[in-house]
Automatic annotation (TrEMBL), chains A, B:
All copies of domain HTH gntR-type, residue ranges: 3-70
Superkingdom per UniProt: Bacteria
Pfam families: FCD, GntR
PANTHER family in the record: TRANSCRIPTIONAL REGULATOR, GNTR FAMILY, TRANSCRIPTIONAL REGULATORY PROTEIN
Protein name: FCD domain-containing protein
Gene3D superfamilies hit by this protein: GntR ligand-binding domain-like, Winged helix-like DNA-binding domain superfamily/Winged helix DNA-binding domain
SUPFAM superfamilies the UniProt entry points to: GntR ligand-binding domain-like, Winged helix' DNA-binding domain
GO molecular function, one term: DNA-binding transcription factor activity
Length: 218, 218
DNA sequence: GTCAATATTTTTGTATACAAGAATGATGGT
DNA sequence: ACCATCATTCTTGTATACAAAAATATTGAC
């Protein structure tokens, strides 16, 4: 299953945007990049269109592709939507979740607990992701699931660093527990609001993180 | 502001998929279509990729582009998500909506009423759309707004016919009124659940429409 | 006649070539 | 010196050409 060059290039460009090689507003020169990747402009253009879809790049007619990092306002908006989507997943999952999924959820949660005790943010991060993805799936709505996963991925680079904040992992854990309990009780509204709060707080943390960075830079 | 050919072609292909010229599963031959549109394969391929992004077409490696109409199950899922997104817009808008927007909403609603009395589904449809789009915007979250508009558009062809169902316009009107009242009171939860119900019922109507079509075909 | 292996034809993916619009620099007038 | 207009250059958008993979047809063995 040989991958298309366009896909490989899209991934690599995505990485370079996230790691800061390309900053916000930079123009992505087709010819330059094509040479750099050792391909022609054709697959490179396809890659750019793909990035435009995920919102990382803005394609302007007859002018080219520009890196488009979401600003603080848009990020807050995205976090808000993420919180609401997770809340919806939770509300639906509370009514539809299977017993085995509840077991898996409990397992993921326990591994989270272990990661907290080991003070291992990376382990926590991956188990946390598993926890949330189970809930997306158990919403019983695969369209919702894919849309939620998509936004989750888009926010990933902005959320990861937050776990390093003092006390965040412990707090996150306790939120997980109340989410799990609500799902076990089948309490749709409780699950929804617990998840909403759990994610919304990330947006707020992000916000304060941003402003500290801002003021530190002055 | 000369449009790109790829965009024009994408629109036209989209139309042909909706109007049934291309059925589910059909392979879209690049060469044939390119000749038909009088362009080369390059812009046509770009158009196909665009359609793939909106989910109308599935691109399979080294095999081509295939029309991919959502089946009944996926449609129900999409309507469910639409209902939840509108509910979220409503919940946020209840807290954030401006007075002038409330006036505009009321105006749109009155025009809806007039359309009901004139038994004019087309007029109702367009005013109804205005009504909903005001709410999306007044959520105060432009990311949410664009995402919601996007899904709205994707469901448009499946929703339009429903207004012809007996009594649907009248019922829809009364739902509008309770939505408007909830927003005027600033009652977030009432607005959310009113909108959720208002949209969810479209999914259900669609479902029954589908099953009657199914049984009629047997 | 059926199946398998190979040859041929299509068709996709990529490279290159060309056309048209935008950005940039030069020229000339005031 | 400054601004407007025009020419040049650069870049995007499109067409054509080529390569590689898949689909199809053909041939031959059993």
């Amino acid at each position: 299953m040989e991958k298309r060059r366009a896909d490989i290039i899209a991934e690599q460009l995505e990485e370079r945007i996230f790691d800061g090689t390309f900053a916000d507003g930079d123009r992505l020169d087709e010819a330059r990049l094509a040479e750099q990747f050792g391909v022609s402009r054709t697959p490179l253009r396809e890659a750019l269109q793909r990035l435009a879809r995920s919102g990382l790049v803005e394609l302007i007619q007859r002018r080219g592709a520009f890196v488009r990092q979401p600003g603080p306002v848009e990020l807050l908006e995205m976090f808000e939507v993420m919180a609401e989507l997770e809340a919806v997943c939770g509300r639906l999952a509370a009514k539809r979740i299977s017993d085995t999924a509840l077991v898996h959820l409990d397992e993921a949660n326990q591994k989270c607990q272990a990661a907290v005790e080991a003070r291992d943010p990376d382990a926590y991060y991956s188990e946390n992701e598993r926890f949330h993805k189970i809930i997306y799936k158990e919403s019983g709505n695969s369209f919702l699931e894919t849309e939620t996963v998509l936004l989750h991925r888009r926010l990933q680079p902005f959320r990861r660093q937050q776990l390093r904040l003092r006390g965040r992992m412990v707090q996150s854990m306790s939120e997980h527990t109340s989410i799990l309990e609500a799902l076990e009780r089948g309490d749709a509204e409780a699950a929804a609001s617990a998840l909403r709060g759990h994610v919304a707080i990330q947006g707020e943390k992000f916000h304060s993180l941003m402003s500290t960075l801002k003021s530190a830079a002055e």
